[in-house]
Amino acid sequence: MSSDLRVTSMDKLVVLGSEYHYYSLPLAARQLGDIDRLPKSMKVLLENLLRHVDGDTVQEEDLQAIVSWLQSGHADREIAYRPARVLMQDFTGVPAVVDLAAMREAVQRLGGNVEQVNPLSPVDLVIDHSVTVDEFGDDGAFAENVRIEMERNHERYTFLRWGQKAFNRFRVVPPGTGICHQVNLEYLGQTVWHTEENGRRIAFPDTLVGTDSHTTMINGLGILGWGVGGIEAEAAMLGQPVSMLIPDVVGFKLTGKLSEGITATDLVLTVTQMLRK
């Protein structure tokens, strides 16, 4: 039944002359029930489960639980969320690369093929937690700070450069580019990803887990993101799902306009304070 649902939910579209396949929620709703009023964030989760439903790690009952969420606005069922990519900063990312290198060393020792040890999900490691300010107050301060940073962290950066060359689906954003969540917002977020599967291009929403505390800022672009610890990020990097309860969704309606002298930051902090109550 689960595989049948995936097959019957497959649809396609043509973009600039290229054909893409995707898992259609309206088609899936014919079996699962009405999802028109389901929050958009929940629809992204629903597509994620639909794309990976296999009767084992993801069961059709998991999808049904999200659809049934509309009845009470809450569900206690645990689901297996598979993010499209993983975001790391150097503080937690370096140990992850060390673990991969150790795995390759162990495979080599056992006579295996080290090329088989690679991330299964795309990983971006942004170097921003090593930045310090030594020079300031003049036009050359930034360049000098980057030079000092490269000198201080030469060994780590050399190791990460090796990791980028050695492992597939692993990219390193060099120091001086920007802070992690900014780079994620401006450069890494794609909104829609696609992958090759059985000779077909499969398009799907961009989703991620990240070890940076501001990972969730990407949600502002309609990209579902969760902050996780290093171990969870490594598991996702190796293709393992992230176990989580179906989340609650809180609606927040803003009306009117900001008074003079009130900034967007003031508004965000006020909303955050209200939600924490």
Automatic annotation (TrEMBL):
Q: What PANTHER family does the annotation carry? A: ACONITASE/IRON-RESPONSIVE ELEMENT FAMILY MEMBER (PTHR11670)
The UniProt keywords, alphabetically, are:
Iron, Iron-sulfur, Metal-binding
> What SUPFAM superfamilies does the record tag this protein with?
Aconitase iron-sulfur domain
Q: Which Gene3D superfamilies match?
A: Aconitase, domain 3
The protein, known as:
Aconitase domain-containing protein
An example Gene Ontology molecular-function term: iron-sulfur cluster binding
Q: Which InterPro entries match?
A: Acnase/IPM_dHydase_lsu_aba_1/3, Acoase/IPM_deHydtase_lsu_aba, Aconitase/IRP2, Aconitase_4Fe-4S_dom
**Limits of the Aconitase/3-isopropylmalate dehydratase large subunit alpha/beta/alpha domain:** 76-277
Which organism's genome codes for this protein? Anopheles maculatus
Pfam families linked to this entry:
Aconitase
